[in-house]
Amino acid sequence: MTEKKRAESLPLEFKLVSADDVPLTYAIEIQEYPESEAASLKNLIFRQNAAPELFLGCYLRKDDNQDSPSSFHPSSNSTNTPLELVGYIVSTLVSGDHLTHSSMSSHDPSGDAVCIHSVCVSSAFQRRGIATRLLREYLQHLQGLNNNAHGSKRLKRVLLIAHEHTTGLYAGVGFVLIGKSSVEHGPDPWFEMVYTLEH
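User: That's the sequence. What structure does it adopt?
Assistant: Structure tokens below.
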């Protein structure tokens, strides 16, 4: 059996998820998250509509890739080169220094903090470093939004909650552990983490 290609050697593209591709993210969401934690299609549609600039997809170019499952669902926004959505990060804006159940279920257009709801990679592409690369691309994307703000309100921080066994992934790209979160979603406890953006 050949070794699976790592993220750095895969032909990946990172771009905003279109409204047409939201159902593709939902298919990954319900595959990778327990039912008690997975977002509904309605929630994902809301988040893409409310903050499309905060919904980043990781797509695999199919032209020169031989390391992919046979069940391929092409991106609806692909052009000449077929693309397969293999992961995504979706967020909304919130106000304040900490996440609450209320802030995580809404979008505050005037908020100065990014609330990450999902960091998800399809199971067929896990354990290749894609989540780490996706997170780094996302943080660079957010910094780019700040750099292009032209005097308007800038984003100050990125907040998320994670289960204890995944906190190392986020710490590896610069997130700092705040502590146990007050948010209850599913049976297991959550831990809040923060990444401070440059101003």
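Residues 68-72 have pLDDT under 50 and may be disordered.
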